Amino acid sequence: MLLKLGVALFIIGFCLVEARGWQKDGKQRRKHKFGNMTDDQVKGFKNSLRKTNVDRFVAALDRLADKNGTDIEPSANEKAAMKERIKHLRKHVRSPKIHEDGDDMTEVNEKAGVAESLYQGDMALDDSQVDAILGEFVDGPADARKKRQAFYNSRYPRNLWGNTFYYYFDPSLTDEAKAISQVAIAFWQNSTCVNFEENSTAPNRVRFFKGQGCYSYVGMIGGEQDLSLGSGCQYFRQAAHEIAHALGFFHEQSRYDRDTAITVNTENVKPESVGNYRETETRNNNYNMPYDYGSIMQYADTSFTANGGKTMISKVPVYQDNMGSQSVSFYDISMMNEHYQCKQKCTSGATCVNGGFRNSRNCNTCICPSGYGGATCSDRAPGCGATLTATSATQTLNITIGVRTSVDYPTFETCNYLIKAPASNKVEVVLRAIAGNVQCRAGCIYKGIEVKATNDHRYTGIRYCCSDDVGTTIVSEGNIVPVIAFNRYHQSNYTVTYRSVPSSTASTILAIQLPMSKPTL
Ligand SMILES: *[C@@H]1O[C@H](CO)[C@@H](O)[C@H](O)[C@H]1NC(C)=O
Ligand SMILES: *[C@@H]1O[C@H](CO)[C@@H](O)[C@H](O)[C@H]1NC(C)=O
Ligand SMILES: *[C@@H]1O[C@H](CO)[C@@H](O)[C@H](O)[C@H]1NC(C)=O
Ligand SMILES: *[C@@H]1O[C@H](CO)[C@@H](O)[C@H](O)[C@H]1NC(C)=O
Ligand SMILES: *[C@@H]1O[C@H](CO)[C@@H](O)[C@H](O)[C@H]1NC(C)=O
Ligand SMILES: *[C@@H]1O[C@H](CO)[C@@H](O)[C@H](O)[C@H]1NC(C)=O
Ligand SMILES: [Zn+2]
């Protein structure tokens, strides 16, 4: 009897809240909040956000969604420039999905019904973050002047984990999601000075569980905070991305300087999702690192699409397919090391070259940009691959990677090549063939070949994974070009040709000038 009454009260309460959400300004835009989630799923979702006044959070997201997108809309000039870039993008035919549940967090979360009830589709915010980040949307226009900020929100650095990130696995988590979480945890632990310790009673801890979709709180909230890896999230990208949120990262496409790197193609964005493309904060700290399209925190280029069309257009067209990466980029690792002040732990040790930095877990070794290895990053990354000498004669490189019968392993295997031309020359690389179960996807999430043609080898190179990429020519900035083939699905074959060209040869347009000023606090 009591139980029944409780359920009835819950339902009435729920209806009241829903009604309020829908009646904003008499508009009824968000009828499908919580998608097609069952009442139990909604209850589970709300319970997982127990560090938050969920109704207040969701109401603020509602107001954010209701606000028209005129501030995100590109200017007429921007739009014209974007249209010009779109014309030159290759007409990729995307491969049929291997997994029906969606390729990226937003797609998974839209299907799961939670995308509109989380910040930018996959972040939970606690009450103080709701104030700091959604301040102008909380409790109506009166609060409009509350300043949005994030990395340096009012509680920084309290929302860092310090030396140890405590976590445990809820029994609801599938074996697959648990296994991939362990891989992603091992990755972040190995790449930073943060220790990850399984402990379900530590005062501050993350509970990995199977909720609706993939989401996490941002940074250490205090007490127990949830990280959901539901159906569709049992992949490395999703796990590594959500853990990065829990460590304190926001999205790459919401960096304050993102307008220098991408144009949001608002015409293709669902009207109720345009607010997700509002920059997170005007004062986030990017540690003087450039915008990296290959960041694990960068959404795929069709996120929140209304029509399947691209929602983000790169200002450097060669990087369009880098968005939505399945691997953590070197700059992600470097930034996390800055965020947790790991680099300071080595006051002496190895002299790292090629952009590497001292590994706080062993200061006599370095953490190297992809493609490089050895204690000081002076070598080619070990294993499959070769160091090749480019001459003025065209040479052919055939790469076969992976095992034909293997299906969908959790992380990439790689073959690392270093192509070296004489010191004052450049390298020309032409993609001649791509074969073997081609998977043409945003972010090249199953397989691809990456060419690092900028002088900065820390930067994620140009990635190719589509048949119509064949024929593309890249001319590097410098005389050394790392080429990395990566694969996690069946077998892949790539043929590239390479040769040394005079330094007077025009380099492919690879970079844009990004403002990288540090915020003043
Ligand atoms: C959008 O909102 C701004 C103010 O926030 C207003 O000036 C503008 O007229 C609005 N545009 C549309 C199309 O509603
Ligand atoms: C919700 O709807 C989507 C299609 O819009 C479907 O793929 C998904 O399976 C549905 N989820 C549930 C829990 O019914
Ligand atoms: C887990 O954390 C609690 C509280 O800090 C501590 O007492 C306990 O020893 C830890 N358990 C393990 C296995 O480390
Ligand atoms: C751990 O990090 C080091 C240094 O970056 C790297 O060489 C090694 O391959 C990593 N190991 C694993 C298991 O990720
Ligand atoms: C490389 O592969 C191509 C087919 O893509 C083939 O025609 C060629 O003979 C191969 N070259 C070498 C050196 O193996
Ligand atoms: C890929 O290369 C391997 C090794 O040369 C070869 O056995 C296989 O047939 C090739 N696959 C395709 C699809 O070209
Ligand atoms: Zn995210």
From TrEMBL:
Residues 338-378 form the EGF-like domain. Gene3D superfamilies: Collagenase (Catalytic Domain), Spermadhesin, CUB domain. Residues 150-343 form the Peptidase M12A domain. Residues 384-501 form the CUB domain. Its main location: secreted. Zn(2+) binds at residues 241, 245, 251. GO terms for biological process: molting cycle, collagen and cuticulin-based cuticle; proteolysis. SUPFAM superfamilies: Metalloproteases ('zincins'), catalytic domain, Spermadhesin, CUB domain. GO terms for molecular function: metalloendopeptidase activity; zinc ion binding. One of its GO terms (cellular component) is extracellular region. Disulfide bonds join 342-352, 368-377. Binds 1 zinc ion per subunit. The active site is at 242. Metalloprotease. This is Zinc metalloproteinase.
